[in-house]
């Protein structure tokens, strides 16, 4: 617009009326466009479901941020806080909110200093609501806060955490407290076997020559021992399931000790621990230089132990096993992968392998309870990370674990 005004001024100097008229027409168009844009932005500002407030920072003589003035606010701000635009505009935050040192001054000052937007969440007890707030600086010395209400999300998070606690409790009770009756069943079944041996010595001589001796023999030496064997097998199965649940329950209860983790050292430790298993097969493990991540070392050791031992277990017979471990930084995460050329997993099983107790082949010769990958997922999610898998049956599998990068 300034250019058009300059054109008009120089045309006026030159006495060129036609050019003056032409540029006045252009100027009118430009003013109209600006007014339209202003109207659109104002409509947006007024109808936004977020609270938007524009402020100007106040500094003391030493350049420290001490307060700020509210320049403007939208209707959503009034709706949620009860503070009208007339009451807010031109007021200092300390005066409006009744605090000598307004909240988040340091965050706002930082945004003004760096020009980088910031986001944080906060609870406003005056109105009993939670907000996610983004702070941006549209021009020097000024900053805007855009706040979306997240009270409902916070409430759901709270309920979820209570429910999670209850579930963990059930899991603990199921896995821990069910063990003692189970051990009782196991003990009494053994005792019954011992008692039968004693009874055998008493009964066998008495049965000799009786008509029902053969029937007794089938019952005594086949049917009852076979029932006892089934009891033992089922008790063992329940015990191994309970052990699995207990492991999951214990992992969930562990307190995370998060710090920078040297993943090269961690993988060295994992491969050292699997040395024996590795000597049993022809395997080539290639570990690339891995970037560090931010997490709990001993929990992450379990993740990579489970993945590597699976790669060793589910190899393809007759094909030399190759395992590749890599890691790359992607934004604020590190994407690690453990890739093998083993037997692979068919697409119909792929979505279920993270489930507790799920095994692709429940009668597989390889030992396992089907909880290794559930624990991998559980630990990764405790780190707010993500797991993924890509696989081709008969060709191999790639597990991807995304973890937070070093802060
Ligand atoms: P488990 O090894 O005790 O059965 P997991 O939870 O570790 O339990 O794994 C679940 C299932 O996923 C395994 O039974 C196996 O069928 C499949 N699986 C896991 N890792 C691999 C792999 N690297 N290659 C092929 N199949 C795998």
Average pLDDT rating:
93
**Which strand order does the major sheet show?**
2-1-5-4-3
Strand content bin: 15-25%
Computed CA radius of gyration, to the nearest angstrom: 36 Å
- Given the helix and strand composition, which structural class is it? alpha+beta
Shape: elongated
Sheet having the most strands: 5 strands, antiparallel
Low-confidence blocks of residues: none
Strand runs, count:
12
Key terms:
22% strand, binds adenosine-5'-diphosphate, five-stranded antiparallel β-sheet, alpha+beta, 407 residues
Question: Topology of this structure?
Answer:
Layout (H helix, E strand, L loop, with lengths): L1 H12 L3 H31 L3 E9 L5 E9 L1 H7 L3 H4 L4 H5 L7 H10 L3 E7 L4 E11 L2 E8 L1 H27 L1 H29 L5 H41 L4 E4 L1 H11 L1 H5 L3 E5 L5 E4 H17 L7 E10 L2 E8 L6 H4 L21 H11 L3 E7 L3 E9 L3
Parallel strand pairs: 7-9
Antiparallel strand pairs: 1-2, 1-5, 3-4, 4-5, 6-8, 9-10, 10-12, 11-12
Bound molecules: adenosine-5'-diphosphate (ADP).
General description of the model:
Helix 8 packs antiparallel against helix 9 and helix 12 runs antiparallel to helix 14 (372-382). The strands form 3 sheets. Strands 2-1-5-4-3 form a 5-stranded antiparallel beta sheet. The two termini are 46 Å apart. It is 53% helix and 22% strand. It is an alpha+beta fold. The longest helix has 41 residues, at 213-253. It has helices at 2-13, 17-47, 75-81, 85-88, 93-97, 105-114, 151-177, 179-207, 213-253, 263-273, 275-279, 297-313, 347-350, 372-382, and strands at residues 51-59, 65-73, 118-124, 129-139, 142-149, 258-261, 283-287, 293-296, 321-330, 333-340, 386-392, 396-404. The protein has 14 helices and 12 strands. The structure holds adenosine-5'-diphosphate. Adenosine-5'-diphosphate binds next to helix 12 and helix 14. Adenosine-5'-diphosphate is lined by residues 306, 310-311, 314, 340, 342-345, 353, 358-361, 368-374, 397.
């Amino acid at each position: 617009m300034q250019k058009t005004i300059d054109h008009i001024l120089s045309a006026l100097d030159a006495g060129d009326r036609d050019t003056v008229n032409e540029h006045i027409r252009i100027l009118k168009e430009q003013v109209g466009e600006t007014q339209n844009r202003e109207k659109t932005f104002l409509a947006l500002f007024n109808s936004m479901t977020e609270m938007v407030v524009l402020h100007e920072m106040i500094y003391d003589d030493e350049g420290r941020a001490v307060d700020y003035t509210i320049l403007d606010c939208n209707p959503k701000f009034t709706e949620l806080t009860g503070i009208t635009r007339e009451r807010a505009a031109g007021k200092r935050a300390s005066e409006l909110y009744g605090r000598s040192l307004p909240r988040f001054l340091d965050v706002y000052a930082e945004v003004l200093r760096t020009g980088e937007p910031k986001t944080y969440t906060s609870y406003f007890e005056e109105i009993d609501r939670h907000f996610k707030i983004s702070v941006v600086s549209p021009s020097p010395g000024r900053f805007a806060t855009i706040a979306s209400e997240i009270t409902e999300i916070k409430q759901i998070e709270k309920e979820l955490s209570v429910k999670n606690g209850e579930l963990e409790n059930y899991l603990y009770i199921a896995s821990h407290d069910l063990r003692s009756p189970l051990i009782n069943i196991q003990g009494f079944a053994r005792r019954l076997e011992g008692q039968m041996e004693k009874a055998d010595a008493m009964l066998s001589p008495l049965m000799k020559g009786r008509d029902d001796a053969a029937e007794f023999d089938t019952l005594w030496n086949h049917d009852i021992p076979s029932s006892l064997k089934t009891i033992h097998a089922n008790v063992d199965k329940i015990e191994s399931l309970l052990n699995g649940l207990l492991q999951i329950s214990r992992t969930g209860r562990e307190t995370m000790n998060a710090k920078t983790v040297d993943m090269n050292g961690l993988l060295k430790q994992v491969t050292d621990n699997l040395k024996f298993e590795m000597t049993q097969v022809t395997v080539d493990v290639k570990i690339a230089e891995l970037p560090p991540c931010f997490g709990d070392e001993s929990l992450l050791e379990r993740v990579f132990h489970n993945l590597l031992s699976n790669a060793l277990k589910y190899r393809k017979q007759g094909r030399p096993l190759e395992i590749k471990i890599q890691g790359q930084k992607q934004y604020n995460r590190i994407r690690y992968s453990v890739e093998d050329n083993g037997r692979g997993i068919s697409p119909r099983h792929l979505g279920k392998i993270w489930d507790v107790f799920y095994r692709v082949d429940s009668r597989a010769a390889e030992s396992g309870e089907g909880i290794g990958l559930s624990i991998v997922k559980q630990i990764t999610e405790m780190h707010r990370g993500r797991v993924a898998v890509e696989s081709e049956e008969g060709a191999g599998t790639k597990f991807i674990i995304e973890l937070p990068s070093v802060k």
